[in-house]
Amino acid sequence: MPELSAGTIERYLVVGLSHRAAPPTVHTRLFTENPELDGFLADLRESGFGTGVVVATCERIEVFTVADDISHAELALGRLIAHWSGLAPDELDPALSIARGGAALRHLFALTASLDSQILGDPDVVGQVRACHRAASQANLVDAPVERAFQAAFGVAKRVRSETAVGEKPVSIAAAAMQVAQEIHGDLRRLSLLLVGLGEVSELMASQFRAGGVGSLTISHPTDRRARTVAGRHDATVHPWSDLDSALPKADIIVAALSEGRYTITREQLRRALKKRRQRPIFLVDAAVPGDIDPGVDSFDAAFRYEFTDLEQIAAAGLAERETAALDAWRIVDAELDAFTARQYEREAVPALVALREHAEAVRAEVLSDGKLDARTATRRLMQRLLHQPTLTLRRAARESEAERAELETALRRLFDLGGDTGGGGESGSAGPGEDQRGSTT
Is the torsion defined by CA of 303, 298, 218, 315 positive or negative? Predict the structure, then answer.
């Protein structure tokens, strides 16, 4: 087998650690929303890698590279990730994921298309991968083979996003709430969100709606200090708990999560709020157990009350639809991987094709330098000189190795589309050099 050249599929490698496999002790150290990419890349270079992208997010830390010595690179990257995680290599090794060649490319394509994320179809993943690629490029750690792989991965993500429904349906409670809000009200940028009471779910809602561009966010809680702390995290305003009634008519979306065992928002309170709003609709999320919102509000046409279980059902249905769509997405990944592999091997054949053309041109120039020849003589000499070395090589193989002879003959018939039986004797395919063997250039 010939020596692998730069950029060959077999030299791609990814070594990494995900939140699924990592011990809990390393989660806060490695999986963050703002990873220290510059430090990771500096360590990568100091470890002897001249090329590579560190994909570091709140879900994973992986290094994608190309290497001449794959086994050595695997060990070096394993030690590097162990250093980052603070674990001994023998502790980390069972949790490491390693993929080579086409499997490494398939993983990169699937990762970028958000098929390997905690939330299937998460639209933020491709942006995170782009940021990691950009950081590696700025650190001069992206060579041509790595660049081609990442550009292909971005193309896969674009196809998956445009040709499948893998990212269309909500798969979390907060995303489901935001979808319902858009269905009721339309553009979130015109809307105001009121959090009544605080809890894990309401903070998730605040984050999701803020990311979705909600116009304003207000927090009201019995403990003013806590309300102000949470408001600082979400760029929100605080409304006095004692005057909650005046905040209700101003809210297009209300998320209640106080869980004090009694209704925080009663039917009568909401009736007054809707009257002041001139019956403009209010979307209410009751995220408390037991509930915070009087179910009697359902009698108002302009009140849309959803309980936690309602949003769970929407999220579950969305996940089921995404999983079905993911089958189409994986077909895109595999088709693009086949296309990328074919282009890569075609690219690697170019130097040999250039050498062949240069050789043929040199032989042609030599034949023409012999003086004025008629077309019949010139073409005969050109043919004989071009065939001379292949003839000698095939005859020598027939004498020395039947296996090599069969391999060369098969290649010859494929290259020139000769057809016919490839199982002949040592002279098969060996036209005699003829009358003019002088001055062969090969």
Answer: negative
Whether 336 and 344 have beta carbons less than 8 Å apart is answered as: no
In sequence order, the 6+-apart residues with CB closer than 8 A to the CB of 389 are: 440, 442
Tell me the CATH number of domain 173-316, given options 3.40.50.720, 3.40.50.2300, 3.40.50.1110, 3.30.470.30. Answer: 3.40.50.720
In whole angstroms, what separates CA 156 from the centre of its chain?
A: 8
* Preceding peptide of 295 cis, ω within 30°: no
Q: Is 132 a catalytic residue?
A: no
Q: Helical H runs in 252-307?
A: 267-276
The confidence band for 425, taking pLDDT boundaries of 50, 70 and 90, is very low
The stretch 360-385 carries a mean pLDDT of: 82
CA separation (Å) from 104 to 14, 117, 147, 261? Answer: 6, 16, 14, 53
Q: Flag whether pLDDT at 431 surpasses 50.
A: no
Residue-range domain boundaries for the chain:
9-163, 173-316, 370-442
| 58, 95, 204, 392: the active-site residue | 58
d(CA 302, CA 271): 10
Question: What's domain 9-163's architecture?
Answer: 2-Layer Sandwich (3.30)
- 36 vs 84: CA distance, rounded Å: 10
